[in-house]
Amino acid sequence: MKESKEHLRHTIWDTLLKKRVARPPLPPHGRIPNFEGAERAAELLTRLSEWRNAKVIKVNPDSPQRWVRLRALNENKILLMPTPRISEGFILLDPNLIPSRLYGLASTIRGAFKLGVKLRTINEIIRRVERVDFIVEGSVVVNIYGERLGKGEGYGELEYAILLTLKLIDPDIKIATTVHNLQVLRDRIPQDPYDVPIDYIVTPSRIIRVENRGERPKGLIWSLLSEDKIHSIPLLKDILRLRSEA
Fold first, then answer.
1. CA 150 to chain CA centroid, nearest Å
2. Burial class of residue 88, CB neighbours in 10 A (0-12, 13-18, 19+)
3. Is the pLDDT of residue 1 over 80?
4. Who contacts 206 (Cβ-Cβ below 8 Å, separation ≥6)?
């Protein structure tokens, strides 16, 4: 299955480059690929009622979702952004605490580290975040059934499982992704037990509402986490410690 997933990723990365719709940083390989029309996809995303009603939105830190993060700040929504590889937890970006002239900077990874508040521990997250209402993921490949692949490291799935474990999201929270049309398949995508299916696919030209998406994991699957992975993410060590003390 790992080889099948990796083949799909490389097919999409190659296609985006060949069709000249990949945008910097280049090459897109090994990344959540930036794409032509990402700003338009972010605009379409804001038409969803779940977006409009959300007060706190978790958005991945990758380049194509920069426009999603900027839209959220401009619409006075609180952003929860994971740090790369969740190595330093999450960053909270509250538009009420950031000058509006700096929203553009705050929507970048570099700016988020400067202008946001790092939430490194479970206690810091629970104290500052009451509830996450909506999630936007980056993707390499998605399909009409809501199956998706990220860049292959599993951090988006871990972020979902961590927030679910901390009871900051509902298991059926609505999840969207913004991608180029070339990233959307009709064929099935191999899925592992930890993969998290999504509800909406938003491209520069359309919104795809997933029907009858698959089941989501009910939390962290410790048996599939290596000691190295747990050691590299302090939040996982915190959760594991609390489990052992319970």
1. 9
2. middle
3. no
4. 44, 181
Instruction: Write down the residue that tokens 């996982």 correspond to.
Output: 236
User: How many domains does the structure of the chain reveal?
Assistant: 1
Domain of residue 109, CATH code: 3.40.50.10420
Q: Which of 180, 200, 226 is nearest to 34 (CA)?
A: 180
What is the span of the domain harbouring residue 104? 2-245
Amino acid symbol at 224: L
Residues in Cβ contact with 118 at an 8 Å cutoff, skipping those fewer than 6 apart: 83, 88, 89, 90, 91, 92, 124
pLDDT tens digits, residue range 105-141? 999 999 999 999 999 999 999 999 999 999 999 999 9
Alpha helices for 19-96 (secondary structure H): 38-45, 49-53, 66-74
Q: What is the pLDDT of residues 77-91, one digit of tens each?
A: 999 999 999 999 999
Q: Is 114 exposed, middle or buried (0-12, 13-18, 19+ CB in 10 A)?
A: exposed
